[in-house]
Design a protein that fits this description.
The complex is a heterodimer. By secondary structure, chain A is α+β, with helices and mostly antiparallel strands. Chain A is 68% helix and 9% strand. Classes of the chains: A alpha+beta, B alpha/beta.
Chain lengths: 332, 206
Amino acid sequence: MIALFDCSLMFRSAMSVMVLCCFVTTCSVIVFSFLKRKKQCFILNAISFVIEFFVLILLNIIAEYKIGNNISSTLLNFSHKPALYFALLSVIAVFVSIYSLIKNKNSYYRIHRQKEDSDSDYLLCQRAEQLQRDNIRLAEMNKQIKLYGEEMQAQIKQKEILHAKTRIHNGMNRLLMISLRAIESGDKSEIEKAVALWHRDALLLCKEAESDENSDIMNDIKALADSLHIKLICDFVTESFDDNTAILFQKSACEAMLNSVKHANADTFEIAVTDDGFVFTNNGALPNGGIRYGGGLTEIKRLAENSGYEMTIECNECFKLILKKKRCEDVI
Amino acid sequence: MSYNVLVVEDQEMPRQLFEIFIKGESDFTLASSIANADLALAICQSKRIDLILMDVCTAFGSNGLVAAEKIKKEFPKIKIIIVTSMPEFSWIKKAKEIGVDSFWYKDVAGHSIVEVMKRTMAGEHIYPDNTPELTLGQATNHEFSDRELEILKEMLGGLSNAEIAEVLNISPGTVKRHIENMLQKTGFHTRTQLVCEAGRLGIVVK
């Protein structure tokens, strides 16, 4: 350090301090750019630092040749001019460093963005793996569904057998109760009825007769007629209706019966089942001033149309509600 | 005084058993016995009925609770006992809302139906504390929350998560979370399996 203050003490000292400051600043910029991963800035500053260092050595060599001192011991021992040049060069190097820092100020964010991009790539990769796992799971589930579907057939068969057993069980239970009542009453006709039912159920078991699934329909209609105190005439054997027809039959019969009591004061209600539909007749008063379609009749008409039937009302000698199945050509 | 009883039950065996019980009691008279709940109101309009034993799922898809509601509106004095074997979670609540007097599970040991009928006519309201316990996969129906059962009920109707969310006024994410919870509880792998089993057991009925 003594050598620093050798020639023209103030000037050389000032130059030396400046060179040291520039040296420290350049080093700081290099360290900072390295830590912050500012690649371009780091390279630029490193190059400028190396140039600066070699220029320093070169200037000193020139100076020593001129002065005749030992190079190694006077690394920072400048003459006037080389010291000034080196100081200027150092200042330029600092400016270059600062400029490179400003220019690359967004590189940090770029790196972060790149990091985010790589993060999203990683997430995408993870999702793709998850998707693959889900696909495998889905394939297993589909396999299970397929098996379930195959088993379903067997289950349906089992269920049908169970239903048949339940039906037989119910039938036997009903027969036993009817038989018990008949025996307790001692009425011969009741006993004969029970025997006939036993015969019918025996045939059923032999699959020589079909079960009457819709017996509830007539039971309910009879119960309603009984509560309305109206005589019910229905000389037909209840057929096995499909669900829609059964609903239509029961609803229309009940509605017609209620109307015949409410609006016509009828005391007899007749139900006839024809080849292509049903006819409900009552012996009450005929409507005055045409038929009024209230909620009940409108609902029956809608139901009839949905089930492929046509509803007509006749009021010639007695009130008739006719539900007739539409023919194919009518439908077309 | 003898009370007139209307039986609304579509299954033959329970109906006949109810009839036998009623006929065996001097306090009660069998007024009528039908299979379709839709006809119950018409019978009440034409006949004096004091008590109705009403099943929920009756013939041709008619609903006993709907019929009970109509009857209670027109004839509030008629006592109604809901008799069912289905452990559907919402029926007890619905029955209470309608004003049904008592609720009786067919398959659960406890009060006999005759006892329930007598106590109901005496002015008591007899309701079970909870639905019967049934096993659904690795869980029981009591392990499900009301919200989960509501979602399960809508699933039974074939609704998608978004549609269920709209019906129940919740987010589709919540629906999905509830379904995942139910699958986790039961150990079932698919929602189809969950819905099929719940529907088969009658835990939810649409």
